[in-house]
Amino acid sequence: MSIPRHRALAILNLCVGDEIWSLETCRESGIPAEWIAEMSDAIESGFNTDEHTIYVENKPTNQYHGIRDLDLAIRVGKVLGIDIDRATQSAFNRRAIVHAIKSAVFEGE
Question: At 65, which helix (H) or strand (E)?
Fold first, then answer.
């Protein structure tokens, strides 16, 4: 494991499924530098629905450079030995996917 279990659990606990973490937040949260390098990206806003619009300080923005917390939750789940496909098979949105991963980790499902 490239991250201590207690740190992985703390990161997973902070994930909700529809947030983008800044690179600074990632570093402060103890996310390994190699994960940040691999996973960070410029994520573009979709303005068709509010759900797809990225907000920075309550204002819409075209794009934001960071890491989606959904991707962090999936990565942490894999590191902790969770079968992500099985755990999330009935999840219907990003928040539900993260909730399913948390349940699998914290409740041993």
Answer: strand 63-68
Residue 85: is it exposed, middle or buried by C-beta count within 10 angstroms (0-12/13-18/19+)? exposed
Is the pLDDT at 46 greater than 80, yes or no? no
Asked if 65 and 43 count as a contact pair (C-beta separation under 8 A), the reply is yes
Q: Is the per-residue pLDDT at 31 higher than 70?
A: yes
Report residue 59 as tokens. 């204002």
Average pLDDT score, the chain: 90
Residue 40: φ, ψ to 5°: -70, 145
Which helix (H) or strand (E) segment holds residue 42: the answer is strand 41-44
The alpha carbon dihedral of 53, 92, 31, 7 has a sign of: positive
CB 95 within 8 A of CB 103: no
Element of type H or E holding 101: helix 94-106
Q: Does the pLDDT of residue 80 top 70, yes or no?
A: yes
pLDDT at 1 exceeding the cut of 60: no
